[in-house]
Amino acid sequence: MQADHLVTMANQIGTFFESYPDEMEASTEIANHLKRFWAPSMRSRLLEYIDIERGAGLKPLVLASISANREQLAPAR
Asked: For the CA atoms of the chain, what is the radius of gyration?
């Protein structure tokens, strides 16, 4: 899957959780959603994109969530 499509999808998830009054809870729920519903290959591609492009185009909350929960989101090897 193309990185730009993954960024768009991640931002859509972020938009939903931005409505949460507690930013920490929103961040946790973004990571939980990615872990539960995204294939490991999708998460891996998004993490690779963040490493290369420094998360360009991702909403700040989404980037912060992924960064804080990177170990949980990285596919098992």
From this structure: 11
